[in-house]
Amino acid sequence: MGKKIIVAGAGHGGLGAAAILGSRGFDVTVIEQKQRDELGYDWYDCTLAENFDAVGAGRPDEDSLLPMKEIYYFSPAKTVLVKPYKRIFKKAVYIERKLIYDLLIENAEKNGVKIIYGVKILSAVCDDERVTGILTQNGEMKCDFVIDAAGMDSPVRRSLPEKFGILREIDDDDTLFTFRAFYRNNGAFSALPKYCAYFYHCGHRGFDWVINEGDYSDVLVGALGKLDEDDVEKTLEDFRSDHKYLTDEILRGGQYGKIPLRKTLSKLVCNSYAVIGDSASMIEPLSGSGITLSLNSAPMLADAVCEAENGGYCEKDLWQYQYDYFNKYIKMILHDDALKSLLTEIGEENLNKLFTKKILSAKDLYGGKMSIPEFIDKASGMISAPGLVPYFTKLAVRLKKIDVLYKTIPEKYDETAIAEWINKYDSF
Ligand SMILES: Cc1cc2nc3c(=O)[nH]c(=O)nc-3n(C[C@H](O)[C@H](O)[C@H](O)COP(=O)(O)OP(=O)(O)OC[C@H]3O[C@@H](n4cnc5c(N)ncnc54)[C@H](O)[C@@H]3O)c2cc1C
After folding, report:
1. 147, 8: one domain
2. Are both 413 and 382 inside the same structural domain?
3. What global pTM score does this model have?
4. Residue to mutate, 259, 275, 294, ligand 1, most ligand atoms under 8 Å from C-beta
5. Pairing relationship of beta strands 216-224 and 206-212 according to DSSP bridges
6. Ligand 1 pocket, CB under 6 A
């Protein structure tokens, strides 16, 4: 039997890496606190069908895919409505979250992975130098390597010794607290677009949507820092007054959740441990794509684990995983992180100006390249709103740093060079 690997939590990237490592002869066990039928939210999510190829899973049937929505964006004051940016919608689709889990679990089991449900992990188990296993409600489980796929509140990551250098706590201010439910529609007419998103809606710093699907509407309320029932109620009331078809009868979902909304952690590996998915904040801080990043990181992690086997899974050998991940995604992540910082720091009044003066378009939100007429439009908008200039100067400085960070990621493990790079990345 191959070396023993424990995957903490049945996160998407963890299940993907487990399947690949199982197929290469490792003895892989996933420990998950929920029961099998509780996995996955009761709604569909936006992702790419091709993501499943990365982990060797079968793709969902074409007829189970729903087309991506073209969403209109409201300014906070709801006086400006920005049209969708169509280019991004080419390949993205909606897939039921439960179906994503069916495919990933079937693939893992087919490759010999054992999944133990209903067992809560309490912490990592470590010696002075490395992670040696996990502590569960049933006792200690030792292994050669731990993959942490237990989501943003992972008890494994949070209990690692500080000296291992991996960020333990993700700030609430870097977290989008969410409520999502599908509500019955009553058939009333609305002149508003069918798919609407809102920034800084009803006084909360965040992002909401109402997606009218005919018989029902998909509603999301998302706020940075905190979200309580009162915020949700207030937001739903406002939605009902604008979108008269929206009733208060929940058909699906109705769950609170959390999304890390910050750049990926600056360190993903230490001796005998690697982190993946939401636990590593593998996300584009504006557009999400957590499932895409998690699944596409899985083969990078599996390859690095195979390479690191002979050396005893040292941080040095596992570095390749981190290098491959950042080499592929850092530009996208930091671009999003810079824009997210602008949108969350600028305040409601200034954000309204970005919309009214046509400085912010849906294309900007999705990283589209600016044409010359668009640039001229934005520049004249900026000149007429000088209060925005400091924010844009800060944004420009940050965007310029992306190239430097990208070009200086150490390809080979060098402790000093890595420490310097991590410092620069953390202070981005
Ligand atoms: C409202 C909402 C909408 C979203 N929409 C999208 C979307 O459209 N597209 C997209 O790509 N992403 C979306 N996401 C984000 C997406 O859910 C995550 O990025 C993605 O699931 C990757 O996270 P993960 O699999 O690493 O972690 P998780 O999905 O959090 O999975 C972690 C697993 O670990 C288990 N676990 C946690 N703690 C323990 C413990 N102590 N012991 C044992 N097991 C444990 C959990 O039960 C869970 O099964 C959305 C999230 C929310 C909340």
Report:
1. yes
2. yes
3. 0.95
4. 259
5. antiparallel
6. 9-13, 31-34, 39, 45-47, 120-121, 149-151, 155, 178, 180, 220, 257, 259, 277-279, 283, 288-292, 294
Is 81 among the domain residues?
A: no
Q: Which of 44, 276, 278 to mutate to test the pocket of ligand 1 (most atoms within 8 A of CB)?
A: 278
Range of the domain at 219: 173-260
- 245: its two tokens: 């078809």
Tell whether 155 is covered by a domain. Answer: yes
pLDDT digits (tens, 9 = 90+) for 363-420: 776 666 666 777 677 777 777 777 888 888 888 888 899 999 999 999 999 999 999 9
The dihedral formed by the CA atoms of 15, 18, 23 and 24, expressed in degrees to the nearest 10: 160
What confidence tens digit (pLDDT) does each residue in 120-162 have?
999 999 999 999 999 999 999 999 999 999 999 999 999 999 9
Q: Give the ligand 1 atom nearest the CA of 257.
A: 53
Cα→Cα distances 398→337, 391, 393, 424, 425, Å? 9, 11, 9, 11, 11
Centre of ligand 1 to C-alpha 158, Å, is: 16
Ligand 1 center to 335 CA (angstroms): 23
- Which of 237, 260, 283 is the endpoint of a domain? 260
Contact 79, 356 (CB under 8 A): yes
Q: Atom 41, ligand 1: which residue's CA is nearest?
A: 121
Residues 6+ apart with CB under 8 A from 77: 352
Coil/strand/helix, residue 290: helix
Q: How far, in Å, from the CA of 150 to the mean position of ligand 1?
A: 8
Name residue 195's amino acid: Y
Closest CA to 318 of 362, 268, 366: 268
